[in-house]
């Protein structure tokens, strides 16, 4: 679609406010440059902030990322676009020359600008699912799609059928549900990419606070796309003891330098759990290949340390990236030690003691950034239960009804004697170096505020805090609905780079 067909922030539409820095100049397109020897140099990356609201993020890209090119900010809400345009002006000449704002439906814009943006950033309210099909088409080959989802209740199994309709995957309510949420989103993006002979390579996948965010590169290759079924799995989770098992969707057979792509062998589990005798729920498909590029994470951590003073949130970013850098990359989900103990109704070994037993049995184990109590391991479930059986022998439990999953598990003798002697690698590197891995929230009532336009009522106390709610309810009486409703949006957009 030609730019003229949609409303954009041309000079005539600039609102009459005094800019903070130098006045805006008309945006100049960045020219293609050569290095004098006829070779083309890399052009500054173009960014699409598809759901920009007041433009906070687009402005931060323009002002804070060195070497950034044009930043296009979209929104289909008139008031948001007006605010964005005010904010562009307020943020001076760099913002004016780099950021442009359009009032348009992001889906139409992305569909009509295929393979145009080096970076597409999706930051919706709730689910990004309706934007994925167009977003995967708008990224250049090798470019990056960054995508947030805040509909954690859906992704974590609150309404499995809703998750299936939005993302094409069934979630399971395990302790690992937040990592499963990341992997459901990745599988969904891959599925949309595949429709256009494209595929993803995850760079970083993070679960924090109340949301998940993934950063994936997108490439085009009809042959590489054939590997997708090898990167996806169904998950069987026992309804009795929560043991879980992954079943890969596809497999390959290599013969005489040729590769055949075949459906995966199944089922990987019998009808009843071999540990406790109960049935399985089946979830997925999830992305079961690595979710981070660990080389990239390590290099970013090094960069971060070298510019520590420039990041007010240094401690938090460093804690998350350090934990991510230590996650076992080839283990999709994780165990919860507390959950294992809850099933057996036993006291819990310390994480170091449990980790040691796994390592001493010849397996790998790591933490996960998703859950401070989560443990990723390549030890099969029967080995895990044997370790727990050995633990219970020296830490006996009260007798339970014989049909309880814990009783069934403990009725079997362990197949080997677990060794709980402290193993050298039982502490993560971060723990050994005493680097914080999980930091508390920066303030009380940290989390998503209300979607703009929603009425604040007393039921929102847990979300906004009593002060905010009481204040808004009072406003509601004094000044009518609009004031109270604007409060939530103001809280979200309270930022020094913005005017309201
Ligand atoms: C969570 S807000 C974005 C916040 C913003 N990225 C930031 O960092 O401040 C989501 C925005 O998406 C906009 N939106 C929703 N559907 C849209 C669509 N189809 N096209 C364009 N914008 C849309 C909403 O108006 C809202 O302003
Ligand atoms: Zn079981």
Summarize the topology.
Blueprint: E1 7-8, E2 47-49, H1 56-64, E3 71-75, H2 78-90, H3 92-98, E4 99-103, H4 106-111, E5 117-122, H5 129-138, E6 139-149, H6 152-155, H7 160-167, H8 177-194, E7 198-208, E8 211-220, E9 232-238, E10 244-248, E11 250-255, E12 258-263, E13 280-287, H9 294-306, H10 314-326, E14 335-336, H11 337-344, H12 351-360, E15 365-368, E16 371-377, H13 381-394, H14 405-411, H15 429-432, H16 461-464, H17 466-479, H18 481-493
Parallel strand pairs: 2-3, 2-5, 3-4, 5-6
Antiparallel strand pairs: 1-4, 6-8, 7-8, 9-10, 9-13, 11-12, 14-16, 15-16
Bound molecules: S-adenosylmethionine and zinc ion (ZN).
S-adenosylmethionine (SAM) binds at residues 51-54, 56-57, 74-77, 80, 105-107, 123-125.
Describe this structure in words.
- The chain is α/β, with parallel strands linked by helices.
- It is built from 18 helices and 16 strands.
- The chain has helices spanning 56-64, 78-90, 92-98, 106-111, 129-138, 152-155, 160-167, 177-194, 294-306, 314-326, 337-344, 351-360, 381-394, 405-411, 429-432, 461-464, 466-479, 481-493, and strands at 7-8, 47-49, 71-75, 99-103, 117-122, 139-149, 198-208, 211-220, 232-238, 244-248, 250-255, 258-263, 280-287, 335-336, 365-368, 371-377.
- α5 packs across α8 and α17 runs antiparallel to α18 (481-493).
- It is globular and about 70 Å long.
- The two termini are 31 Å apart.
């Amino acid at each position: 679609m030609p730019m003229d067909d949609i409303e954009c922030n041309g000079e005539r539409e600039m609102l009459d406010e005094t800019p903070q820095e130098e006045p805006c100049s008309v945006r100049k397109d960045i020219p293609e440059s050569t290095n004098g020897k006829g070779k083309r140099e890399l052009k500054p990356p173009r960014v699409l902030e598809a759901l920009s609201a007041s433009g906070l993020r687009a402005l931060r890209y323009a002002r804070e990322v060195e070497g950034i090119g044009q930043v296009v900010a979209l929104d289909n809400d008139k008031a948001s676009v007006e605010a964005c345009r005010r904010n562009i002006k307020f943020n001076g000449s760099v913002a004016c020359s780099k950021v442009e704002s359009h009032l348009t439906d992001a889906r139409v814009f992305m569909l009509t600008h295929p393979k145009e943006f080096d970076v597409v950033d999706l930051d919706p309210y709730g689910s990004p699912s309706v934007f994925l099909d167009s977003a995967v088409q708008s990224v250049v080959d090798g470019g990056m799609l960054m995508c947030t989802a805040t509909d954690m209740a859906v992704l974590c199994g609150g309404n499995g059928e809703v998750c299936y309709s939005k993302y094409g995957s069934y979630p399971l309510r395990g302790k690992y549900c937040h990592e499963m949420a990341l992997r459901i989103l990745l599988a969904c993006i891959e599925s949309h990419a595949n429709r256009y002979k494209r595929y993803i390579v995850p760079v970083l996948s993070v679960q924090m606070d109340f949301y998940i965010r993934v950063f994936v590169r997108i490439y085009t290759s009809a042959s590489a796309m054939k590997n997708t079924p090898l990167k996806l799995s169904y998950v069987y989770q026992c309804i009795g003891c929560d043991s879980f098992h992954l079943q890969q969707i596809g497999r390959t057979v290599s013969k005489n330098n040729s590769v055949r792509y075949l459906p995966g062998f199944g089922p990987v589990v019998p009808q009843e759990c071999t540990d406790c005798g109960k049935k399985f729920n089946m979830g997925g498909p999830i992305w079961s290949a690595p979710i981070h590029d660990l080389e990239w994470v390590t290099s970013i951590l090094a960069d971060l340390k070298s510019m520590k003073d420039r990041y007010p949130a240094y401690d938090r970013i460093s804690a998350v990236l350090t934990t991510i850098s230590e996650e076992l990359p080839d283990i999709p989900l994780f165990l919860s030690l507390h959950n294992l103990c809850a099933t057996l109704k036993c006291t819990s070994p310390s994480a170091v003691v449990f980790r040691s037993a796994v390592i001493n049995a010849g397996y790998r184990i790591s933490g996960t950034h998703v859950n401070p109590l989560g443990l990723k391991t390549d030890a099969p479930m029967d080995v895990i239960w044997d370790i727990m059986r050995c633990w219970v022998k020296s830490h006996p439990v009260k007798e339970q009804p014989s049909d309880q999953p814990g009783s069934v598990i403990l009725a079997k003798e362990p197949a080997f004697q677990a060794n709980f002697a402290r193993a050298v690698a039982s502490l993560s590197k971060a723990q050994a170096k005493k680097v914080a891995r999980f930091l508390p929230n920066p303030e009380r009532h940290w989390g998503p505020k209300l979607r703009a336009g929603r009425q604040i009522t007393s039921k929102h106390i847990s979300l906004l805090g009593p002060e905010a709610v009481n204040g808004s309810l009072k406003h509601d009486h004094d000044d009518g609905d609009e004031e109270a409703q604007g409060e939530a949006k103001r809280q979200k957009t309270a930022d020094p780079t913005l005017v309201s």
